[in-house]
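Postdoc handover notes: sequence design on the structure in folder B. Input tokens:
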């Protein structure tokens, strides 16, 4: 579809935002892993807030994992359209996209372990700093 005017157009921005929200809602409704990751992000952010830990690295890690999951879903959809049959390169594309989500998730776990675990252990162990 052609652009309907200036990049600074509020109408254009709202329209683009609507497409983005439609994509987010579709992925949330159809992808169990995305729903799990959304709720895990909520728990991590709430825990960080409760522990008064730095929220920026937790927020960025959550955004990274969710963004990668959205891209993984997009890659899978495009590959399914382009190659409805079994093809070795289609498998490579899907596996690589899933690998990106896995790598981002492991990184997010590392951030959680370094940012959230020490203050959590301090609270659980009665104020003893690890």
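Designed sequence:
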């Amino acid at each position: 579809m052609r652009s309907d005017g200036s990049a600074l157009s509020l109408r254009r921005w709202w329209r683009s935002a609507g497409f983005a929200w439609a994509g987010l809602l579709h992925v949330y409704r159809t992808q169990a892993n995305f729903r799990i990751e959304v709720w895990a992000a909520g728990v991590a952010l709430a825990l960080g807030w409760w522990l008064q830990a730095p929220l920026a690295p937790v927020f960025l890690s959550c955004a990274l994992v969710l963004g990668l999951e959205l891209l993984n879903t997009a890659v899978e959809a495009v590959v399914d359209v382009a190659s409805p049959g079994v093809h070795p390169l289609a498998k490579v594309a899907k596996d690589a996209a899933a690998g990106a989500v896995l790598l981002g998730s492991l990184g997010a776990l590392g951030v959680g372990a370094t940012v959230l675990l020490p203050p959590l252990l301090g609270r659980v162990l009665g104020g003893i700093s690890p």
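Context for whoever picks this up: The first helix runs from residue 10 to 30. Don't rerun without checking with the PI first.
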